[in-house]
Amino acid sequence: MPRLMLSDEFWSKLEKILLQEAIYNKHNLRMTVEGILYRMRVGCPWRALPKAFGCWNSIYKRFNAWSSNNKWLRIFKALTIDPDWEWGFIDGSYVKAQSPSAGAVGQEAQAIGKSCAGNTTKIHLAVDSCGLPVEFDITGREVNDCSAAPQLIAKLPDVEVIVADKGYDSEYIREQIVKKKGVKAVIPRKRNSLKSNADMDWGLYRYRHLVENAFTRLKQYRAVATRYDKLKRNYESMVAIACGYLWLPM
Asked: Which residues in the chain come in under a pLDDT of 70?
């Protein structure tokens, strides 16, 4: 029997949310979800799922159907109960997209960009004061932090302070943050900036490691650390499952 990830306490909490999302409570629902979590953890092909979870094709079809209806994203949001919005931290991290992720049918962009290292996807993540993920976006490697930040910041509620690194040093981003009901921006200026860091809160900036720690925890799951999914929505669902799993003990 392969190692499972859901205790009875975790499953009881997750099952209620699944039923709220109109997911039919079949007799093998728990093992189906465990099979999806197993694939997220080890990054194996769907066909390589252990038989203990059931038919691999049935598990994949259910995952794909729930993904196409954005159910995994809604499940993640349902698990984010009472985030601490005193501080918010944002950052981006690259993910190598392996050859199985290439060749999706259709002309729709699948958030895979070219780089000298090959195909790459980027996760743009926002965490709360406790370092728990609350929002994220998936883009190709060519989308830099400044380009993705406005959409990510717009999703955040009335957080008091937003902390980010030099990659977000942009007057447009600072203005967007300040206009969010007077939110304070803690972003160091680049070396070639004409303005100084005289008003920089370096004490608070030291806590920016919380978002980096969140990436470290998410990338413990190999289907998140390395992209194998052809479709953006399916990889997005894998990231949503990983983020939601971090919230289960809360």
From this structure: 181
